[in-house]
Amino acid sequence: MVNQETRKPVQTVERSLTILFHVAHTARPMTLTEISAGTSVDKATALRLLGTLQDFNLVSRDPVKLVYVIGPAALHLAGAMQGSLQTMALPHLTTLRDKTEESASLNVQRGLERVALLSVEARHELRVVPSPNSAAPIYSGASGLAFMAFMPPANSARIIEITGLDPVNQRGISEPGQFLEEMNTVRRQGYAVTRGDVTPGAAAIAAPVLDSAGSPLAVVSLRGPDVRMSAARIAEIAPMVLDAASRISADLLGATDSNLSEGK
Predict the structure, then answer these.
(1) Which of 19, 184, 229, 257 is deepest in the core (most CB within 10 A)?
(2) Region class of 137: left (phi > 0), else alpha (psi between -120 and 50), else beta
(3) Positions of CATH 3.30.450.40 in the chain
(4) For residue 247, what are the CA distances in angstroms to 181, 188, 211, 213, 241?
């Protein structure tokens, strides 16, 4: 049994990380009241922990507007993490491409956008693949649905409120009620499917790479021409997309556990 004296510093770390992750996953600057409400940490404790996070440049505070955003040190850590993410994801994306013969990609969230961090192209002459570091609204396409469906509900609600689900090239779901229904479907089946939402004539399947709390660290997507992506074909390859995302998540969490056990 963990005694109370040992538990206190652990609880402080847990609360600090909860606040840091909440600020990082939120699509806009946040007040102290919002952070406290969103993390269930009382305002006095949240203020103290935010001060410590500021000391390490993990969060930044606007002294005029009195709001908090993610800090430069956290962004540096995110960059390092994305490098590790690419290294761990590449073999799984390559296997997914080889099994399905379609282009496989890894996508990450950056603010209100999702970015194609890494892609392994199909070998067909007719193929669909995003440009390196190409960005699209976080809610758009199959990748966007996978992000939105698995992020904390308060964050997805805030994104819907801020963006109004403005459709990309007049395509995609723009009605909030319909979008929420689609998110529920994605959560139930574990993956998203769209046709022509971002690229005309293309279909996509996407599944989230989840952290230990069940929030998306990234999204694995598979894209191909609509003519090759029938409903039967999608049903056949969707489990492969889910498997690739699950394996990347397991590798990331396994590496984290290993580093912690070795004191790195």
Answers:
(1) 19
(2) beta
(3) 75-260
(4) 28, 19, 12, 16, 10
Residue 134, judged by CB atoms within 10 A of its CB (0-12, 13-18, 19+), counts as middle
Taking domain 4-70, whether its CATH number is 1.10.150.170 is answered by no
pLDDT tens figures, 34-64 = 999 988 899 999 999 999 999 998 899 988 8
CATH 1.10.10.10 region(s) of the chain?
Answer: 4-70
CATH classification for the domain delimited by 75-260, as one of 3.30.9.10, 3.40.640.10, 3.40.50.720, 3.30.450.40: 3.30.450.40
Enter the pTM of the model. 0.72
pLDDT digit string, tens, across residues 178-226: 999 999 999 999 999 999 988 899 999 999 999 888 889 899 999 999 9
List beta partners, residue 115: 108, 135
Summary mean pLDDT of the chain: 87
Beta-bridged to residue 171, according to DSSP, are 168
